[in-house]
Amino acid sequence: xxxxxxxxxxxxxxxxxxxxxxxxxxxxxxxxxxxxxxxxxxxxxxxxxxxxxxxxxxxxxxxxxxxxxxxxxxxxxxxxxxxxxxxxxxxxxxxxxxxxxxxxxxxxxxxxxxxxxxxxxxxxxxxxxxxxxxxxxxxxxxxxxxx
Length: 147
Known about the structure:
Structural class: mainly alpha
Oligomer: single chain
Number of domains: 2
Helix content: 55-70%
């Protein structure tokens, strides 16, 4: 009996192997091939991952140069983030989270370009200087003539 059982187990094992190879071939033909190879990851420089997202200080909110610097800085950060995501995406193209991250960084850059095109006064200061009236720091009381 034990010889029959071991013979049946061997046949069963062969059939399982045949079935799995047929399934893999079918998946390859359908375009759903699963990659089981290990992919070595590149070491990402930690300095690239440091994203500075400090908000604009309240006293600089109406300062045009602060806004242009902030937009320029945000564009640089988005470009760095996109480079990181695209390099990782090349290594593992089947990772959907990297695909979403790549689309997200592309949308950030597109929004910044739209902002730059629709609000040119934010990004193009130009050479025109505006006159600024100084604030009266000393408080004087003016007496008006009453009739």
